[in-house]
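Hi team,

As requested, here is the filled-out complex form for the succinic acid run. I kept the field names the same as last time so the parser does not choke. Let me know if anything looks off before we queue the next batch.

— J.
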Amino acid sequence: MGVGLRYRRDENAMKIKPTGAALGAEILDVDLSKEIDDATFNAIVAAFHEHEVVFFRDQKLTPEQHIAFSRRFGELELHVRVDCCRPGYPELFVVSNVIENGKPIGSLDAGLFWHSDLCYMGEPSRGSLFYAHEVPLQDGRALGDTLFASATAAYNALPEETKQRISGLKAVNSYEKGYYRDRKSGGRKPLTEEQKRRTPDMEHPIARTHPYTGKKCLFVNEGYTSRIAGIEDAESESLLSGLLAHATEPRFIYRHQWRVGDLLIWDNCATQHLAIRDYELPQRRLMERTTVRGAAPF
Ligand code: SIN
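And here is what came back:
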């Protein structure tokens, strides 16, 4: 797909290059370390809503710049796993396999199952801004890709009878389920009472309406959705497993191969994602994420 010129401001131009997959676009010619004027920011937001995942290559951001740009999208969440945040920056959730002084510097095992960030909260995240500091390489090829699945494309492709079946139904999203599932891959302490208190199970509509675009999104994921509320266990199991398999079919997926300096924004209503763990130390991966607060699903 070609590079389309969508926005022009005097001598500066922002270009948007769709990935050619069901979702995703690269935004070119924007330096996020500089002041972003409102018109440019609005054009970025419009591209984000249209493409669901947008990314900027070759950025050089300080933690303050990463946080400041993220705040343009809304208030930032402070992650329930405070031990995984960058010291002095509670807004920056560190995802890394790096060990320093015998301790992981961030979350060793984030995102190894399909999920959308904070779907288990009453107000799931609007979007996340992920910045690549270090990317593992093998023979010059990047490892540690992230897969993104479009929840709008998945919803649209459902048979009409399934759309009717799920209309009005809610699913239970459980932090504890995801936490203990990820914990099997190692390194996590049991949840504290405070973490449990902050993350009771939450019911959200399965066919969720995107708060900005009005599009319907299939809002269930393998990582945290534990069951469908209000129906028998066997029926819940069969309906949920069918929806989960459908949501991540290859036709709905964009696979992002990271480069150092990438700043990528994903929409936590219109997409879900999965981190690929195909690297080991001494191959280092160091990423930092801000998580923008969202609204209660409807
Ligand atoms: C995450 O789910 O926040 C991490 C994704 C990744 O490491 O690629």
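Two things worth flagging: The pocket of succinic acid is lined by residues 95, 110-111, 146, 273, 275, 287, 289 (CB under 6 Å). Residues 34 and 290 are 18 Å apart (CA to CA).

Thanks,
J.
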